[in-house]
Amino acid sequence: MDSDLAEPLDLLDPSIPDRFVDGSADTLFARLRHEAPVHYCRESRFGPFWSVSLYEDIVEIEGQPQLFSSDAKHGGISIIDVDPEQATYLESFIMMDPPQHSQKRRTIAPAFTPSEMARLAESIRERTVTCLDALPRDAQFDWVQKVSIDLTIDMLAILLDFPWDERHKLRVWSDAITSLEMMRNRPEERMTKLFEMASRFHELWQQRSQSAPQPDLLSMMVHSPEFGEMGAAEFMGNLATLIVGGNDTTRNSMSGMIDAFGRWPEQWEKLCADPSLIPNAVSEIIRWQCPALHMRRTALEDVEFRGHRIRKGDKLVLWYVSANRQESLFPDGERFMVDRPNARRHLSFGYGIHRCVGARLAELQLQILLGEMVKRKMRVTPTGPVEREPHPFLAIINAIPVKLG
Ligand code: HEM
């Protein structure tokens, strides 16, 4: 894939999914940051789009939601346009602009306050300890299946107070929401799963609405005026956001960290020698892995940006994965360093009014996981290639064979 990186700039297509698997995206974005930080791609499998690859430009665009929209009716938040038909049954506040967005966000934000995090920490730790202590000692296993998926699904079940013995369904639904393969080849099966999800949550919604308010997220939504009256489409969209936001991104961070420590084993030694580095290491994992490679906005008016004429309706792809490697902010950014001084400045959680509402929860889960691993001096060694999925929006890791010791 490196061969086409010497091509004329106007022929470069930064969205080719394989680039995020073979590592050539790093080379491409380094070139764009230097030669064309605001770049137009005329033709791609996702249609024409602008690429914004510098940190300060992304921040400036995300800071103007009145000009650059997240709304599903303009295409939504990823380079993959929301299908106009789906837009009617996948409404979520992540794909809304003010003022609707602000009202909805205010309702769920209390589920993520520091005091709520302290309340959840005990259950997260319990689940993490049980999971780590059950890992095979003498055999190879897949970290993604045995740790990343189980822990993040359990967390989501705790957050929503979803019936514990049915929690495996959350995983099936999450896959149905994001899988490009299902979107292309098995759209009906995918829709069946999504409707199954909607119907199960609808039952839970009815039950919670008849009980006293509880601190779980579902109850919080049921009893709020902003969400209490929402229709089926919005209900499904918000669930999809929470399931993907709360699950896939954190799951892929838990997997990405094993890849990172596998490539730079001395960083694991450094962390074990000084566990006070754990919170910083978590930020560095999220910077380095960058679970959402970009977010997308759509111009609501003709606008001049850094000397370029952006037209109303144009798609702007804000490449976090590039900003997180920007040389002026993160020197040697492709390296993973648990003591990187400004790791917390990463853009992986976005910026502005849509900045990830679950950021604290994601960090908490990773801190507990790393903390329990460090306590056990658990050395996890990759034994084969990391299986990354070619995807233009999410950094997905499907498998990492490992052994302990
Ligand atoms: C490492 C893990 C995570 C990453 C990298 C991540 C990334 C992001 C990003 C980039 C956005 C901004 C979207 C935009 O600007 O359009 C976002 C929003 C959001 N995230 Fe996360 N997320 C993570 C974990 C979580 C968790 C654990 C939850 C909840 C369970 C969550 C729930 C949400 C929600 C509800 C929004 C929408 C916020 C809004 O539109 O105001 N995320 N996330």
Give the tags.
alpha+beta; Cytochrome p450; five-stranded mixed beta sheet; three-stranded antiparallel beta sheet; 17 helices; binds protoporphyrin IX containing FE
Domain tally: 1
- Whole-number average pLDDT? 92
Shape type: globular
User: What would you say the CATH architecture is?
Assistant: Orthogonal Bundle
Structural class: alpha+beta
- Radius of gyration from CA coordinates: 21 Å
Helix content: 40-55%
> Which stretches of 5+ consecutive residues score pLDDT under 50?
none
Q: What small molecules does this complex bind?
A: protoporphyrin IX containing FE
Number of strands: 12
CATH homologous group name: Cytochrome P450
Largest sheet: 5 strands, mixed
Q: Regarding CATH, which class?
A: Mainly Alpha
Across the major sheet, the strand order is 1-2-8-5-3
The helix/strand series, from N terminus to C terminus, equals HHEEHEHHHEHHHHHHHHHEEEEHHEEEE
